[in-house]
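Researcher: Sequence recovery benchmark, item below. Answer with residues only.
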């Protein structure tokens, strides 16, 4: 069970308000995407959820555990895994070692780490020949797969994706989107993705939300966005489709 509640979250930097009362509930096992323009505060919101950034006001609860008690409560942070925007693989470790690294943090022994890492690397569609290569020696799509293997290896209750397709060409983006969707469907866990890319939301999510001017201005079934009646949301929808239609 992993339900996430953002309750009136505020965050500002040097008097610039980035989050100005974000409230949102994400149900257990829901796949939710938060959409918004670049710079609107999506990554800040994820960092607040992970407790990497403190909140100025409000609270975030995951199954009734508050982010504010994170330091006292390892159970809170243990629930999450994140697929970072730039993958965040360690350059000096092989692909296999990158996946094993996360596992070693949670007290698996060496041979268990090796078995689980291989299993997860196969699960994301990587071939054995890449396991002992370094991140710089494989393609961006393969790096994304490796980062996903590392994220799921520790069996999180909540999987977070930060701009999961950024930096990938359109074909690889599509393949990775399919992989992410299959992964969250198979694992049956709660998933929150943040992106500016409407295509990702349309493909991945049950419901989505739009973050603008520091608050969630719309939440609903993703397919309802087009005719939701809110001018900003409908413009966001149409602008994304015009850009996509132009083949950019
Ligand atoms: N550590 C920080 N210090 C100051 N400003 C920050 C910091 N992190 C983010 N910001 C500002 O917060 C705003 C939102 O950033 P971010 O959440 O990264 O946007 P995005 O929606 O593209 O992920 C930006 O204007 C950014 O400059
Ligand atoms: Mg971001």
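Model:
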């Amino acid at each position: 069970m992993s339900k996430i509640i953002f309750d009136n979250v505020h965050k500002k930097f040097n008097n610039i308000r980035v989050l100005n009362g974000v409230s949102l509930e994400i149900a257990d096992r829901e796949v939710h995407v938060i959409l918004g323009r670049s710079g609107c505060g999506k990554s800040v919101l994820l960092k607040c959820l992970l407790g990497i950034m403190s909140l100025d006001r409000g609270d975030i609860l995951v199954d009734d555990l508050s982010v504010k008690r994170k330091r006292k409560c390892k159970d809170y942070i243990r629930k999450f895994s994140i697929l970072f925007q730039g993958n965040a693989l360690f350059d000096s470790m092989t692909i296999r070692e990158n996946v094993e690294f996360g596992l070693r943090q949670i007290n698996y022994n060496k041979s268990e780490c090796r078995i689980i890492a291989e299993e997860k690397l196969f699960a994301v569609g990587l071939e054995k020949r890449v396991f002992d290569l370094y991140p710089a020696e494989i393609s961006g799509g393969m790096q994304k797969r490796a980062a996903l293997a590392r994220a799921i290896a520790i069996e999180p209750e909540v999987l977070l994706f930060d701009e999961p397709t950024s930096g990938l060409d359109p074909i690889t983006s599509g393949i990775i989107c399919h992989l992410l969707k299959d992964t969250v469907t198979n694992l049956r866990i709660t998933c929150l993705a943040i992106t500016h890319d409407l295509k990702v939301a349309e493909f991945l999510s049950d419901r989505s939300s739009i973050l603008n001017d520091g608050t969630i201005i719309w939440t609903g079934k993703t397919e309802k966005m087009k005719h939701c009646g809110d001018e900003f949301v409908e413009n966001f929808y149409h602008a994304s489709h015009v850009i996509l239609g132009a083949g950019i």
